[in-house]
From TrEMBL:
Protein name: Potassium channel protein
Record GO biological process: monoatomic ion transmembrane transport
PROSITE patterns found in the cross-reference section: RCK_N (PS51201)
Signal sequence region: none
SUPFAM superfamilies in the record: NAD(P)-binding Rossmann-fold domains, Voltage-gated potassium channels
Record keyword RNA-binding present: no
Lineage of the species this protein comes from: Bacteria, Bacillati, Cyanobacteriota, Cyanophyceae, Nostocales
Residues annotated as domain RCK N-terminal: 336-455
Keyword list, A-Z: Ion channel, Ion transport, Membrane, Transmembrane, Transmembrane helix, Transport
Organism: Brasilonema octagenarum UFV-OR1
Pfam families per the UniProt record, alphabetical: Ion_trans_2, TrkA_N
Amino acid sequence: MKPRIIVCGLSRTGYKIFRLLRQQGALVVGVHHQPIAGESSGDLIVGDLQAASTLTAAGIQQAHTLVIAGPDDEVNLSVMMQARMLNPQIRIINRFFNTNLGDRLDKAVPNHLSLSVAGLAAPVFTFAALGNQVIGQIKLFKQTWPIYEEYIDKNHPWVGRKLSDLWNDRSRIMIYYMPFKGEMDLVSAVLSGQELKVGDRLILGTQPCIRSTHKSRFTKLLKVLTSLRQFKKHAQSVVVMTIVLLIIIVIATLTYTSTNTNISIIDALYFAVGMITGAGGNDKVVENAPDSIKLFTVLMMLIGAAVIGLLYALLNDFVLGSRFKQFWDAARVPRRNHYIVCGLSGIGIKVVEQLSKSGHEVVVIERDSNNKYVNTARGAGIPVIYADASFSATLKVANLDSAAAVLAVTGNDATNLEVALKAKGMTPQVPVIVHYAEPDFAHMAQEVFDFEAVLSPAELAAPAFAAAALGGKILGNGITADSLWVAFATLITPVHPFCGQQVKDVAMSAEFVPLYLETNSQTLHGWDLLETNLSGGDILYITTHGTRLYQLWRSAPPQVIAS
């Protein structure tokens, strides 16, 4: 019998998870605080999500898995505790914005898995900015790999090529195979020498590349020199007041030396600076001077006091206020081949961190200087421009014309579209990646505005929640033609039904694709993997169709699923 799954909180992401699970043939019941048009009372329970009566009506005592997908961490935490009181053995997939809290709960609460929508969606935004048409992600060899679909058309270089030729490439792992005609699993196609034909589809994972971040001293010096124009722009008022002060001092010095030839220029300069700054000076310079010079001195004192006061105020604001940070960030804006991230949302900060860790230069544009992620970005050495990204001047400061890509990832869809349209209008050749919350309208925006990618976090994250609900600790997932496939690792125990069998035999019989095997402190891939006999202690990484996960539960105890 299929496991019963409850999805609690059918907001944008939750409803996507609910529909996706139902699409895969799972026994799923939704719980929401209000009715949803088109949903029958049998599939949807309406009530207070945190109330025991609501969860009981949804069948919490008989359920195998509870997916808590609401947008509020506090509510999700309450639902989790209420569910555990009603069913201590239930497996819980919990959505948390606070990833630190989620990690602690995973360690403290048995059968609890926390997932973050931002954490799941951010890698896809990152890969899209790097130019990959990704449909998902997978964790292999301690790295996050982008996953994409390869459609074999008549002009594709792989037409007529045998799948066995592609099988042994460790930098490009085949995950799923969908022939245009008929049905055949990937392992059988590889072993039989199947050739790729027009209309076939392959899902592949490609190993990410880490760029070197080392820069020569000459490059760093050149960047400092080319950033001087930013210094002039951000410190213009300070420079202007300094120049005015110097001019006043020069005028006073020349006036004293021209009216009294017995006064040296050094004495005159000393008196002029002391008189203007209020520090005092050599009074003999004006002791025997005519009244006109004394009146001139009084005037210089008043003007000097005003100029000095303004200069001190500007310097204080520049150094101790936010202007110095702004100047320093502006001076460090990359010159070319960098990524402009507009908006430090939950997804924005993760995109910034991932691009930076991959060795790419990044600049952030954020309107709110009090944004809670600003210090995180600055701590990672990322320059932050405090301005509105929808203004042309702001994008010019970020060197849009030479950027590698622009990511509009603020928390407001209208703002993201405005920023993306402005960037496209200024530099059509620079790719633009847009965050759009509503999945259906994201597809519309993609068609209407022809951006490189318009991505919805709900659509990107929902498959991971659905896959996790169907079974185990999921390492990756994707959607192709409305079919969900998942990747996970299974621990081979002495009682495991795969123990003692060859990988290729169990792969064909159970209809999964083996990715690699961890055995005896080494990893096996390609042909070596297919010919290996599984033994206790091995960890086998596989992909399979989402509808087959519950069958693995019936053939193997739950503890064989490992991360």
